[in-house]
Design goal:
The chain is 23% helix and 17% strand. The strands form 5 sheets. It has a 10-stranded mixed sheet with strand order 8-7-6-5-9-1-10-11-2-12. Strands 14-15-16-17 form a 4-stranded antiparallel sheet, with helices on one face. α1 packs across α7 and α6 crosses α7. By secondary structure, it is of the alpha/beta class. The longest helix has 26 residues. It folds into 3 domains: 346 residues, Alkaline Phosphatase, subunit A, CATH 3.40.720; 51 residues, no CATH class; 25 residues, no CATH class. It binds calcium ion (CA). Calcium ion binds next to loops. Calcium ion (CA) binds next to loops.
Length: 496
């Protein structure tokens, strides 16, 4: 399979590259390590550095004090699969055919779609420079041969192939899921069978990441740690549950189990961050490792997205602007903050630049090298940056500078109205017109609904997909039917 050759410079000039990228590391400098801690469904206001008063996050507080708060950092989609696809490739998920799963907003077990093997991931780019690459956690970019982490540039993988709610315990009886498999590389080595198993996932992924860092301390490495926490169903280890039942400062103890477990999960995530940073300090790798902490989309039920409007699934800020920290002692200024438009699309070109890796010249990428921003230098392009908000295949909005225009014509000034409460389109026709033309260009380039974009590439697709493990109670090959191909029980079938 080969990807079609595409014009080097796309319609979105500001978002595409002029190549080649300069190598930042001079000869003799060790190449920096990269660690991306990617939380699932964490709200913008769920951690101390972003204003939480109901969760104790001392490790993240320290990370922020030693690093940089990115207050206007975006993921490219408000749900799991497309957000991860964009982070991993530096491309809008529409560009690479993964704006959604084959028949749902995200990939389901046994889905015939996945990240096309011809797409280049951060891991594949860094491997060309001798990096060891490990992924520990939730993948969700395809569970079929060719789509899994070991097929996409990772030397080592341990984790679950898709969301932790895609198991027989799912609350929606419409779907018949197989057991939730746990993989080491391409091999199923276990199952997540109980809520106690669910509650152990943060520790398991953290331990694997720490072991990988120790094993590869003498060579450059890239660790991608996409936690299953805090996606429903939520469970945490008993010590975190017990601690979360206590009052905090002037706040009473959580009043429901739902609130307790959400707090416990967020505080266990904080523990995980502490373990990673502690390991890097102990190995004296802290001055040579860029650690990024962020979330794949906004918070779901029980999480806190304030002061933003909306949450997971939404094209308002709460769906796609995520609380993000960058940490690299000696390189990222301590105790700093950056309010520029920065995105998950930028990680691939930034890491490539810092590692001295050339970028592919045969395809459009959408991110930019944000090294200067992370190092506290203002970049001349900061003020000009543009970000497009897509929900699945629908283009919903564009941001340029402080302005955000929705496709339905509503205009918000985010610097004075962060919670998107007042439509000011009538007062600013010239801004509205300028942003409307940006929307039109994105529509032609990336598509919108039924309109196919001019510069999009094909999704990965295999002809006869099957689930990784058999469904309980089903026989033969029928037990491996992709979940979305199983007819729901009669009582839950749509009436038409
Ligand atoms: Ca998610």
């Amino acid at each position: 399979m080969t990807a079609p050759r595409l014009p080097l410079i796309g319609l979105l000039g500001l978002l595409t590259f002029t190549l080649p990228a300069p190598a930042s590391a001079s000869a003799g400098d060790p190449k920096p390590n990269f660690v991306v801690i990617f939380i699932d469904d964490l709200g913008y206001g769920d951690i101390g550095p972003f204003g939480s008063k109901i969760n104790l996050t001392p490790e993240l507080d320290r990370m922020a004090a030693e690093g940089m708060k990115l207050t206007s950092f975006y993921v490219a989609a408000p749900v799991c699969t497309p957000s991860r696809a964009a982070l991993m490739t530096g491309c809008y998920s529409q560009r690479i055919g993964l704006a959604r799963g084959s028949d749902h907003a995200v990939l389901f077990p046994g889905d015939p779609h996945g990240l096309h093997p011809d797409e280049l991931t951060i891991a594949e780019i860094l491997k060309t420079q001798g990096y060891a690459t490990g992924c520990f956690g939730k993948w969700h970019l395809g569970d079929q041969p060719g789509f899994l982490p070991n097929d996409q540039g990772f030397d080592a993988y341990f984790g679950i192939p898709y969301s932790n709610d895609m198991w027989p315990g799912h609350s929606n009886r419409r779907w018949s899921f197989p057991p939730l498999p746990l993989l080491r590389n391409r091999t199923v080595i276990g199952q997540v069978d109980s809520m106690a198993d669910q509650g152990s996932l943060c520790r398991q992924f953290t331990d694997e990441a720490v072991r990988f860092i120790r094993r590869h301390r003498d060579r450059p490495f890239f660790v991608y740690l996409p936690h299953a926490f805090v996606h429903h169903p939520r469970a945490a280890r008993p010590e975190f549950m017990n601690r979360a039942k206590r009052p905090i400062r002037d706040r009473p103890a959580p009043e429901t189990r739902d609130r307790t477990v959400t707090r416990a999960q967020i505080e266990e995530i904080d523990w995980s961050v502490g373990e990673i940073l502690k390991t890097l300090r102990e190995l004296q790798l802290d001055q040579n490792t860029l650690v990024l902490f962020t979330s794949d989309n906004g918070g779901s039920r029980g999480c806190v997205n304030t002061p933003l409007r909306g949450g997971k699934g939404s094209a308002f800020e709460g769906g796609m602007r995520v609380g993000t920290l960058a940490w690299w002692p000696g390189s990222v200024p301590a105790g700093s903050a950056n309010g520029s438009i920065l995105t998950a699309l930028d990680l691939l070109p930034t890491f490539a630049s810092l590692a001295g890796a050339p970028l592919p010249q045969d395809r459009i990428l959408d991110g930019s090298d944000i090294t200067a921003s992370l190092q506290g230098e203002s970049s001349s392009t900061d003020a000009d940056r543009t970000f497009f908000y897509y929900q699945q295949n629908r283009l919903r909005a564009v941001r340029s500078g402080p302005w955000k225009l929705f496709a339905d014509g509503k205009l918000y000034h985010l610097e004075t109205d962060l919670s998107e409460s007042t439509d000011v389109a009538a007062d600013h026709p010239e801004v509205t017109n300028r942003l409307a033309s940006l929307l039109e260009r994105a529509r032609k380039d990336l598509g919108d609904g039924e309109l196919k974009g001019a510069n999009v590439r094909p999704v990965g697709r295999i002809p006869h997909s099957r689930t990784l493990v058999p469904r309980t109670g089903a026989e033969g090959e029928d037990a491996f039917l992709p979940t979305l191909q199983i007819k729901p029980p009669a009582a839950t079938r749509p009436s038409n």
